[in-house]
Write a structure and sequence with these properties.
It is a single-pass membrane protein. By secondary structure, the protein is of the alpha+beta class. 22% of the residues are buried. A 4-stranded antiparallel β-sheet has the order 1-2-4-3, with helices on one face. It has 4 helices and 4 strands, in the order αααββαββ. The N and C termini lie far apart (60 Å).
């Protein structure tokens, strides 16, 4: 019979795995926070579009691992006031960047989609970002 003070292997594994998931969740929240802060043009800004591509790849891989989609990213950006969704369907999104440089957002979303292995065409037309999923 096991006493109250002893921990079984299953309990230790569950505690360690839960701590691991909490750390992953916190890291994702921090990366999305800095993404939104960057896209808003706050005091933390990435001046180079190559940095936006790198950030897009990292967040894309993170979203893919967690089963999140492009729709989730655009929803988060709209929630923070960085973009305004003009129209959307299952394979088409039209957004208007509000507090974001459209070219930086284009490079970020392109890298995000590449990291998620989604074939797409991302273009900027008349200050709107058009995303077409192939």
């Amino acid at each position: 019979m096991m006493s109250v003070g002893m921990l079984s292997f299953e309990n230790v594994f569950f505690i360690a795995f839960s701590a691991y998931l909490v750390v992953i969740l916190l890291m994702t929240a921090v990366s999305v926070y800095y993404l939104l802060k960057t896209l808003r043009g706050g005091d933390f800004a990435l001046p180079d579009s190559e940095l936006f591509k790198k950030a897009g790849k990292v967040v894309g891989k993170s979203f893919k691992d967690r089963g999140l989609t492009l729709h989730d990213l655009l929803w988060a950006l709209e929630l923070r006031g960085a973009v305004k969704m003009d129209s959307q369907s299952s394979k088409y999104y039209s957004t208007r960047p509000l507090k974001v440089n459209p070219e930086h957002l284009e490079s970020y979303i392109s890298a995000f989609l590449i990291a998620m292995n989604i074939r797409s065409d991302v273009t900027v037309k008349n200050e709107s970002l058009i995303i077409s999923i192939n």
